[in-house]
Write a structure and sequence with these properties.
heterodimer, A: alpha/beta, Rossmann fold, six-stranded parallel β-sheet, 6 strands, 16% strand, B: alpha/beta, 8 helices, 8 strands
């Protein structure tokens, strides 16, 4: 599977060094290594979801308990979570950190991902959720740390988009 | 048929030491009418996520009992959440579902439990180890006491009358409640660490 292990490791290490100890996740191709790393890490509580929106409640509960968390999901999972994001995380000022695989954008071959890809950024903007791209392994740690810092300072959701450049290693033809 | 507020009144004194999450609407209003406490958090929207919030709390604070007061309309919006609860089975979580078979605060339209959906059956089939359905105040109090005493995840469905308060907005500001609740937990942790 041409999902970058090295870059997944960089993302996971960055989440750990930000003090994140709970991850909610729903599997998707680009997230496989990240989820396995969380599975194998005795310091991490991994909560496997039936639907991504549950992760908003779980992260809010963790925040109330003083535990730093993040949601690992595909952008379609972000779409599925919007009511929870608005009517819990935004209504109640929860510093929700969302790590979102940005499927369906340029370079995507799976037709079923493309509509979600086209609306992800417009929706984040409409919701007033600041976001940054994780596209350069050298900058992953800094971008995640900065997003988390902002989320806690503002008590507001923030999103990081895992891009194709970072996550996908195109096999040689 | 029993009323939800009678149930809440009967167990109110036993909510002292736990963390309580409620859904919006009548449950939040009625619990507040009995007396708000800093260990109560009322999720005044995001229907379906009260149990997920309880799960996050229960996993992060395994030594603290967490009680979720849910409703049929909310649970039906997040049935998958029951399977997630069952997957992690936090021993310190008590899930109470008040089932009045309606969406009371928005006109009283019937939910699917009015036509036979059995939430206890769904919870049991999802893998929740302790489940019950209760219809009297005695049954409710006994089942709640057993759920608080047991070291297993439990889900109890209380069949209640579709009645509630006249109005749903209370004097407690949402954010005041949220920050007070978080501060309360922080104080508990500080006390525990000493």
């Amino acid at each position: 599977m041409p999902v970058s292990q090295a870059n997944s490791r960089a993302v996971y290490a960055a989440l750990k060094s930000c003090g994140i100890r709970l991850l909610s996740a729903l599997p998707e191709t680009w997230l496989v290594h990240l989820i396995r790393m969380a599975e194998d890490d005795p310091e991490m509580t991994l909560v496997r979801l039936a639907k991504e929106e549950e992760g908003v409640g779980i992260s809010a509960g963790a925040h109330f308990a003083g535990v730093k968390s993040a949601m690992l999901m595909q952008n379609h999972g972000f779409l599925a979570s919007i009511n929870g994001i608005v009517s819990f995380a935004q209504l109640y000022r929860i510093p929700l950190l969302m790590i979102v695989s940005y499927r369906g954008h340029f370079g995507e071959r799976d037709p079923w991902q493309t509509q979600g890809g086209a609306v992800t950024e417009p929706l984040l903007r409409a919701l007033g959720i600041p976001y940054a791209f994780l596209d350069d392994p050298e900058k992953v740690a800094q971008r995640i740390a900065e997003a988390q810092t902002w989320a806690y300072a503002s008590l507001h959701p923030a999103a990081l988009l895992l891009t194709r450049q970072l996550m996908w290693e195109e096999p040689a033809p | 048929m029993i009323e939800r507020i009678e149930c809440l009144r009967a167990i109110y004194p036993s909510l002292d030491d736990c963390l309580v999450i409620t859904i919006m609407g009548a449950v939040a209003c009625e619990l507040q009418s009995l007396g708000h406490r800093p260990n109560f958090f009322y999720l005044q929207h995001a229907m379906g996520l009260a149990s997920s919030t309880g799960l996050g709390l229960a996993l992060c604070l395994p030594d603290r009992k967490v009680v979720v007061f849910d409703g049929d309309g909310s649970v039906l919006m997040n049935l998958g959440g029951l399977s997630t609860l069952a997957r992690y089975r936090p021993a310190n979580l008590v899930h109470v579902i008040f089932d009045n078979e309606t969406l009371l605060s928005v006109g009283g339209f019937p939910t699917a439990t009015a036509t036979g959906a059995d939430l206890e059956g769904i919870a049991r089939a999802a893998g929740i180890p302790q489940t019950a359905t209760v219809r009297t105040l005695e049954e409710f109090t006994a089942a709640f006491g057993a759920a608080m005493a047991t070291d297993e995840l439990s889900c109890m469905v209380a069949k209640v009358a579709p009645v509630g308060p006249k109005a749903y907005v209370t004097g407690l500001v949402l954010l005041e409640n949220r920050f007070q609740f978080q501060r309360h937990i922080e104080n508990l942790r500080v006390k525990q660490a000493k």
